[in-house]
């Protein structure tokens, strides 16, 4: 149970931030007090003190951020830096998120047109109608209006923008149109080449985590750096340093947005599991990540994508070994059973959240993820190699892109083929999903018990 010692603290930090944003600070303090009392009754005084203290910090930080946001005056317009790639909406308008000095959350800005040069890191001015947000969060307003670029990205942001532009140009030059959308997305989080129909296909098949950078992508990059350091006969510290530097640079290239933070943290947790679970248990690392991220950014507490990332990572660590043991007697190849176990675990845990978020679930997501799993790591690692070579010359990147192109095309082919199938998505509520998957999980537990008795 030592691995679970930070679970109460992580849940308390998360729940306290949600309570502050949705209900208010006094309800959040009541929640923290209730958790402390429960731990004291459980005869865990040390846990009670630590959990209560870290929970109170979460309340204080979220309370302060909400107060600062509510006191901010945006009626004369705002000036801020674009965080993350601008997103084109179904209506044809654009969504940009701006980081504004003195404001504790990203400001959503809806604009009918995207001006030239509106890229991550660019400084822009936004003016227009100030409205209340439609979703709970730290932020107190959104802006519907016009965006004007004041200056292009500077420093590392300018370097990252140049990397993305040169890689995108190389992809357009050397990869067929079928894979031009997915490869920049999987490698550098650039979804600007993806059409609305293509993005919807990834959503309907549970592959949206591949159409942009995910925790798995980050883990592939970190693992590749670790392997290179190991081949260079570096020690464990050198290997970890190489993996950490690779992750930081990779996250910087993609952009300083919440989804990148989530993906980076998920990648770190996966890397911990790959290196040695005896040194730092994956669940322990996941809890530390939850605590750290929510203390840094209280807005993540009410972010569905953050919840999906955490739940998927936790379920892969906790449930996939159980499912793997239950499927071990099928006689199927071991690598296939492992991939299937991971896909089932992630799908079971995230399906109720997806149902609550959009009112439907992708029923074939396990099949889709299993079909594309052999190529995802190759696309990410070789794609990064191509991105590096493209900074020198498109000619150098061409041979690598010729290999990556068909693999990226396979991901899109799987997504579009399954999305066209009848009942690829089913409208359902979260409660029914929990019940159905609960029975499936119970079946795996029973099967595991029978296998142990036979052995």
UniProtKB/TrEMBL annotation:
<feature type="transmembrane region" description="Helical">
    <location>
        <begin position="370"/>
        <end position="392"/>
    </location>
</feature>
<dbReference type="InterPro" id="IPR052159">
    <property type="entry name" value="Competence_DNA_uptake"/>
</dbReference>
<dbReference type="InterPro" id="IPR004477">
    <property type="entry name" value="ComEC_N"/>
</dbReference>
<feature type="transmembrane region" description="Helical">
    <location>
        <begin position="12"/>
        <end position="42"/>
    </location>
</feature>
<feature type="transmembrane region" description="Helical">
    <location>
        <begin position="48"/>
        <end position="66"/>
    </location>
</feature>
<keyword id="KW-0812">Transmembrane</keyword>
<feature type="transmembrane region" description="Helical">
    <location>
        <begin position="301"/>
        <end position="323"/>
    </location>
</feature>
<protein>
    <submittedName>
        <fullName>ComEC/Rec2 family competence protein</fullName>
    </submittedName>
</protein>
<feature type="domain" description="ComEC/Rec2-related protein">
    <location>
        <begin position="186"/>
        <end position="446"/>
    </location>
</feature>
<feature type="transmembrane region" description="Helical">
    <location>
        <begin position="335"/>
        <end position="358"/>
    </location>
</feature>
<feature type="transmembrane region" description="Helical">
    <location>
        <begin position="428"/>
        <end position="447"/>
    </location>
</feature>
<keyword id="KW-1003">Cell membrane</keyword>
<dbReference type="Pfam" id="PF03772">
    <property type="entry name" value="Competence"/>
</dbReference>
<keyword id="KW-0472">Membrane</keyword>
<feature type="transmembrane region" description="Helical">
    <location>
        <begin position="236"/>
        <end position="254"/>
    </location>
</feature>
<keyword id="KW-1133">Transmembrane helix</keyword>
<dbReference type="GO" id="GO:0005886">
    <property type="term" value="C:plasma membrane"/>
</dbReference>
